[in-house]
């Protein structure tokens, strides 16, 4: 194997595939990145066995020569070291050559590195995913869906299925749900092009977070294909494969109240900032609990106190308060996460008494629902 | 105590004094910041008992009213919490009022915080430093001196005096030296205005690092006053007091060779980058050692190898190599620290054989000397 490549383009590719490489792997070959060179270009693969990211750099991109292939071939090189070497090389192009016994030479300007690679045939093969159950979504929409749901997955492995986001395709609609059993985030999307039949998969939160980092904010299409064990996201020249979580996702629809006793419309950003301030007093305690109380004149009061430190209260003018008076306590963190996911828009908060879960919606987008289970203090 | 203050100006002041406050203190009152309000303005003090930072915000600055004093007084408030509260308040001004039992009210817009302060008379008094042994230095020069020396102090408490920088005033010259016994950094300055008599103090590296953060890059004067136990740096409205280190600083002058056998002139930045690359192979091993060898044609080769990972070599064209051939090994980190302190200028490196310390100077400034003790590998 021998080729020359533009260093900035190789770095871009490495930047993508490095996201899948974990230093904690127990499989030595997975500390490496696989490089495969053909006349057409360079394929890079990184994996931690749960997530695999693959990117392809074409020999010629937009009329510019990126790679000059002298001899085709493949090698696995230690990922972190290879990435650091490429990053620190002195010139804008780099020559990579593999000689016998996987001895790999990296040459740039007057700088010459010799590292020992690994047998490429030992690198795990990618799962096979057929294209027949594939659907398409714009990258920016996919990114929103992830942002609005993934934060609510459970951080605890005690119920592994809750560490993922439940994606369900049913009746021409995609419904994404995440919950840690104290709060829930749900996003519904009606897609123009959905696959036939029904799907129900649970995608690890970690995979969705990595996906978010490698897709752009454009409306570029992302191809999504699923099997019973894997999901593949494909955009531009980058592919992300993720293992799916096993087990049945709980039926969350019963958690969401169908009737409400108090409805408050207000500015989400103002509410966020008041909760943020109130949580300064709350978070010293273990629970980080703030209170919300409705007052006459369409005002809500946000307050918190800590016997050791002090107390805080703040009045917020709402657009409207309809229905019964409400006094409720909840986690400041959950509330701030939910408001952040609603992106600072005007929000509608609906309560069914101090003991029942309450929900938040965006005034501008009915597709997003955030639910929070209150804490009993009153 | 009751006053109103522009929030951005209070934050600026807090930003300075917070640098002296440590969360690790064993003296509860030092987790706080002292606020003292008089007609003239607000004085803020933070301290970890080694370093004390004080700043004064005038009631009127450049014709703008910063503070409206309603009642003079003082209080100590928990530093981190107070800073966070002020940072998150909703409006551009804030009212602070202390009522009985140190109950402190912080009011901004519709937000109202109540925190419990501490007795201000319990806050330690500042050391008394007379002005008679005071000298002046421009802020940017002071910052350079710190940058060029402080990195070389010892991180180990086994010889406490080496954790500081030795400042010596003698024969109208200020000489600053830091060493961890493996390398040494020395800066000489001839100041226009030096104090009479001789000084020899050791300033903790930590204090100098904090000093660097609070002084600007301007040529604004900094007033420096010393006693046998304390040093005071005073610039604008900010004062930094630091305890001095006890004990005799070793005589380092004998460490520096007086004769050299090889002199290399070269670009410091090119050398830095080559060492940086070579250290990629070196730092996996415990020692992080790279080699430098002179070759014919005014070339030096930088190289490194690690049996497990691989090897690297790079040739650098120098301006000149005079004297004997040299092959020497040293810590990549020490070399990079020294070159960074010389600020990327052209450098002169002078060797006295592979076993003796070698020195680096800037071509542009003879006042800075960096010394490194080599490692015996040849």
From TrEMBL, chains A, B:
BP terms from Gene Ontology: DNA strand elongation involved in DNA replication
Database matches in InterPro entries: DNA_clamp_sf, DNA_polIII_beta, DNA_polIII_beta_C, DNA_polIII_beta_cen, DNA_polIII_beta_N
Transmembrane residue ranges: none
Domain DNA polymerase III beta sliding clamp central: 138-251
Record's keyword annotation contains Protein biosynthesis: no
DNA polymerase III beta sliding clamp N-terminal domain ranges (all copies): 1-127
Major localization class: cytoplasm
Subcellular location as annotated: Cytoplasm
Domain annotation DNA polymerase III beta sliding clamp C-terminal: ranges: 254-376
Gene3D superfamilies according to UniProt: 3.70.10.10, DNA Polymerase III, subunit A, domain 2 (3.10.150.10)
GO MF annotations in UniProt: 3'-5' exonuclease activity; DNA binding; DNA-directed DNA polymerase activity
Entry keyword set: Cytoplasm, DNA replication, DNA-binding, DNA-directed DNA polymerase, Nucleotidyltransferase, Transferase
One GO CC term, this protein: cytoplasm
Pfam families: DNA_pol3_beta (PF00712), DNA_pol3_beta_2 (PF02767), DNA_pol3_beta_3 (PF02768)
Function: Confers DNA tethering and processivity to DNA polymerases and other proteins. Acts as a clamp, forming a ring around DNA (a reaction catalyzed by the clamp-loading complex) which diffuses in an ATP-independent manner freely and bidirectionally along dsDNA. Initially characterized for its ability to contact the catalytic subunit of DNA polymerase III (Pol III), a complex, multichain enzyme responsible for most of the replicative synthesis in bacteria; Pol III exhibits 3'-5' exonuclease proofreading activity.
Assembly description: Forms a ring-shaped head-to-tail homodimer around DNA.
PANTHER family for this protein: BETA SLIDING CLAMP, DNA POLYMERASE III SUBUNIT BETA
Record-stated family: Belongs to the beta sliding clamp family.
Name of the protein this chain belongs to: Beta sliding clamp
Organism of derivation: Psychrobacillus glaciei
């Amino acid at each position: 194997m021998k080729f020359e490549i533009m260093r900035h383009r190789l770095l871009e590719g490495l930047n993508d595939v490095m996201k899948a490489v974990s230093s904690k792997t127990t499989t030595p070959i997975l500390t490496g990145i696989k490089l495969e060179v053909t006349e057409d270009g360079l394929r890079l693969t990184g994996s931690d066995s749960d997530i695999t990211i693959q990117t392809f750099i074409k020999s010629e991109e937009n009329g510019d020569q990126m790679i000059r292939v002298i001899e085709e071939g493949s090698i696995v090189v230690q990922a972190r070291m290879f990435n650091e070497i490429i990053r620190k090389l002195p010139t804008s192009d780099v020559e990579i050559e593999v000689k016998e016994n996987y001895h790999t030479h990296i040459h740039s300007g007057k700088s010459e590195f010799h590292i020992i690679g690994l047998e490429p045939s030992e690198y795990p093969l990618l799962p096979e995913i057929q294209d027949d159950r594939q659907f398409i979504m714009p990258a920016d929409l996919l990114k929103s869906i992830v942002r609005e749901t993934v934060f609510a997955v459970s951080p605890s492995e005690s119920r592994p299925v809750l560490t993922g986001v439940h994606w369900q395709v049913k009746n021409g609609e995609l419904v994404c749900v995440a919950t840690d059993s104290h709060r829930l985030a749900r996003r519904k999307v009606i897609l123009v092009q959905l696959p036939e039949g029904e799907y129900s998969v649970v995608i690890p939160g970690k995979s969705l977070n990595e996906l978010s980092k490698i897709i752009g904010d454009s409306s570029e299409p992302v191809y999504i294909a699923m099997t019973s064990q894997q999901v593949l996201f494909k955009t531009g020249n980058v592919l992300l494969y993720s293992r799916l979580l096993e087990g049945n996702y709980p039926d969350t629809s019963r958690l969401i109240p169908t009737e409400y006793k108090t409805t408050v419309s207000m500015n989400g950003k103002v509410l966020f900032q008041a909760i943020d301030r109130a949580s300064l007093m709350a978070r010293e305690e273990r629970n980080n609990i703030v209170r919300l109380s409705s007052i006459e004149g369409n005002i809500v009061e946000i307050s918190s106190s800590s016997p050791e430190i002090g107390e805080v209260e703040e009045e917020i003018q709402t657009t409207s308060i309809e229905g019964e008076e409400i006094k409720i306590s909840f986690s400041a963190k959950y509330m701030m996460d939910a408001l952040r996911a609603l992106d600072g828009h005007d929000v509608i908060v609906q309560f069914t008494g101090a003991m029942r879960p309450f929900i938040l919606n965006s005034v501008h987008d009915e597709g997003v629902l955030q639910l929070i289970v209150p804490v009993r203090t009153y």
